[in-house]
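ingest -> fold -> write
write: protein_1
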Amino acid sequence: MPIDAAKALAAEPRTGEITWDRRDVQLYHLGIGAGVPATDPDELRYTLESRLHVLPSFATVAGSGSPGVISGLSMPGVDVDLARVLHGGQRLEIHRPLPPAGRATATGRIAGVYDKGKAAVLVMRTEVGDQDGPLWTNDAQIFVRGEGGWGGDRGPSARLDPPVGAPDKVVERAVREDQALLYRLSGDYNPLHADPEFAKLAGFDRPILHGLCTYGITLKAVVDTLLDGDVTRVRSYTTRFAGVVFPGETLRIRMWRSQGQGQGQGQGEVRVAVSAVERDDAPVLADTVVEHS
C-alpha cells in the first residue's frame, strides 16, 4: 500500500530553519493579486517595503513553504503519485503578527491519515516559532485520489452548515492569466499549475491555479473589506478547497459577519464562500471561516 498510516504517524518530525525577507513578502502579495491599482495607498501596504504589512496567509509560503504539501509527500510511510494529489483544505492559526522579515524554526509532521474510501487524506502540520515563541501553526489537508479503502479512520468532517441570510458583502476579484506563473515563484513548483501536459495527466484541460493562491486572494478580500485593512486582527483562517480555479477567471467572494460560537467579547468571525463567476458560480472555497479580533 503506498500509504502506511501507522508509519507516517510515527515518523520523527522534520525540523529546519526558515528565513524570509521583505522581497519574499512583496512577491507573495503580488502573486495573490495585490498592487491594483498600483498607487492606491491601501495596496501600497502590501507592495511598498517602507510600509509593508504582512497578510497572515504568507505563512503558507514563508521559507518557500517548507515543510509543506510537497515535502509531506516524501515523509516515511508516504509514496504517492503527484498527479493524484490535490490540496483538500487548509487551516492556519496565527499566534503573533508576522514580521516582514524573520528567521524561525519550522517543525513538520504528519498529524493525521484518514481513509475517505476512494481517497486518502493526509494532514501535514507545520509549527513555526522564533526566539520569542510560537508564530503560527499550519495544517494542510492533502487529498490523494485512489489511495483510500484500507478500512482506516475516516477522520473529522470539515462540512459546516451554510451561512444564513444574504451576505454582508460581495466582491469580485479577477485572476490574471499569468497568476499561477507568478504565484509559483513563492515556492510551489508543482507542474500542475504551469505545464499543460502534466495538467492533462491529472485530468484537467489546462493548468489550474494553486488552491493556496485562491486562499490568499480570499483572505486579502476579507481583511480589506471587513477588517479595516488590519492584517493583525486575523486569528485563524480555515477553508476546504471545493473546486478548481483556472487562471483568467473571476472569483466571487461572499462574506457573512457573525459573532462565532465560543468567541469572547471583541472576537468574531467571518464566514466566506467563493465561486467562479464564469462557470455559473461553481464552488471554489467552502466551509471557510476567518476568526478575528
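write: protein_2
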Amino acid sequence: MSGPFIKTPGWLDWYRNPSAPAFTLPEGTVDAHCHVFGPGAEFPYAPERKYTPCDAGKDELFALRDHLGVSRNVIVQATCHGADNSAMVDAVRASGGRARGIATLRPDITDTELAELDEAGVRGVRFNFLKRLVNAAPKEDLATIAERIAPLGWHVVIYFESEDLADLESFFTALPTPLVVDHMGRPDVTKPVNGPDFARFLRFVEHGDVWVKVTCPERLTATGRPALNGERESYSDVVPFGRKVVEEFPDSVLWGTDWPHPNLADHMPDDGLLVDYVPQVAVTAAMRQKLLVDNPMRLYWPGENA
C-alpha cells in the first residue's frame, strides 16, 4: 500500500539502509534534484498520474540528507502529484530555509498564487517532455508560464529525451528564463561521448543560459555496474559523459540524488554509493566545490553563504 493508494505493480521502493559514503561531501553540499512522494494519506496523488509510487515524504528525505552529509535540498515536483504542489511546498517550508522548490504550474495560475510559491521558496518550474510521464507538453501553455515566472527571477527546468532535442531546441532557446537541464539531457551512453549527438547537446548548453544536472547515472547506464553491494566505481559507462560536462561547464553544473528514484525498473541504487560516483565525474576538489556547493548556492540561495 501507498497510504490509501495501491503502488504501481513492480514498483521499486527506495533503498532503506543506505551505506555511509566513502567520499566526504564538502561542507555546504546541495542535493539539487530530489523529490517527495506524499505521503498519500496527507497529500493525495493526482488522478491523472502515470504511476503510483511508494510514500517517500519529507521526514525520510531530511533523514537521508543528514545521513549523506548534504546541507540543502532542491525538491522537484514529482509528476505523480500533477500540478498540486502541496507536498513539495510543505517539505520546503519544513526545511527551515534549507530547501528550495521546483513547481509544476498551469498557465491560469494567479499572481497571488505565484507570490505565495515564491515566498515559500519555489525558484523554478519544471517542463516535462517525456511522453511516458505526461500526456502532452503544450508549448503555448509552457511559454505562457515562462513569461509569468520570468519577473520573479525563476528558471525553467527541462526534462527531455536526447533524440528530441533537435525538435525542442528552438522552443527552449526562445524562453525568457535561464534553463536547467535534467540528467544531462538523457544521452545515449552507448554512443561515443565525442560523437555528434552529445556534441549537439554540449553546443546547446554553450550557446544559452543553461545549467546542467550531472545526475541519474543509474537511469542512463547500459553496461555499468550498479551502485549496490559496496560498488564504489559504479556506472562506468556514464562517467565519460558526466566528466565531459563538468570539464566544459564547471560553473554551470549541478548534482543531485534523484531520491526516491521514481520509475526505476532494473535496480534501486544505494544512495551512499551514489555519493561515491561524484569524484568519478568531478575529479578535482575545485570542480567538486563548484558542482556541489558554489553553483547551486549561486542559483538557489544567491547572496547567502553555504
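write: annotation protein_2
DSSP finds eleven helices and eight strands in the chain.
The mean pLDDT is 95.
pipeline exit 0
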